[in-house]
Design a protein that fits this description.
The chain has 181 residues and is α/β, with parallel strands linked by helices. It is built from seven helices and six strands, in the order αβαβαββααβαβα.
């Protein structure tokens, strides 16, 4: 109820459809964990062409414009992710946060609201193209393709043995992290 309420307030104050975002070449990245989705997201986001949700949009990803007006956080220095994989993040880093929106609504509601939600993110970032990295996007490719006919869907994959090894090493890494903490 709170998430939907924040989203409705966001739409009342900030939703403007001043262009047809369905014609843009948005990019939706989906893939298994450890397949390279995050590094691909960061590479594409750093082109400055795309809007995406950022760590600083938490915890109010349902109202990105409203929260940006109230946001008083500082941009923390970059630090390496807990994965110890050489990827550094800060509050300005993009992340797969649209799943919060997508998990709040039914499939029919998503179909009716996804354009509005992406419009709000584009407005906040003053961009015309959206970039999403969400490992669950593969479940919604048909819906997203129906709504955004020019969108690109990128699904990276790794050689299976390397992929398994990476997953196993992360498992060990997080066991160590949990034991230390």
């Amino acid at each position: 109820l709170i998430k939907k309420g924040l989203y409705e307030i966001e739409k009342i104050f900030f939703l403007e459809k001043d262009f047809d975002l369905t014609k843009e070449e948005h990019i939706f990245i989906s893939g298994l964990p450890r397949s390279g989705t995050t590094i691909l997201l960061n590479y594409l986001y750093n082109t400055k062409i795309f809007a995406s949700l950022l760590y600083k949009d938490m915890p109010f990803v349902m109202a990105p414009n409203l929260f940006s007006k109230l946001n008083y956080t500082k941009n923390l220095n970059e630090k390496e992710r807990y994965h110890k994989d050489g990827i550094y993040i800060n509050l300005e880093s993009p992340e797969a946060l649209d799943e919060i929106f997508l998990s709040t609504f039914t499939e029919n509601e998503i179909e009716n609201e996804i354009e509005n939600y992406i419009s709000l993110i584009l407005k906040k970032n003053k961009k015309k193209r959206y970039l999403s990295k969400n490992n669950s996007n593969y479940n919604r490719i048909n819906l997203l393709q129906k709504k955004f006919r020019n969108a690109l869907f990128v699904i990276p994959f790794r050689e299976p043995i390397q992929h398994s090894n990476s997953l196993f090493n992360q498992h060990l890494n997080f066991i160590d992290f949990q034991n230390e903490n």
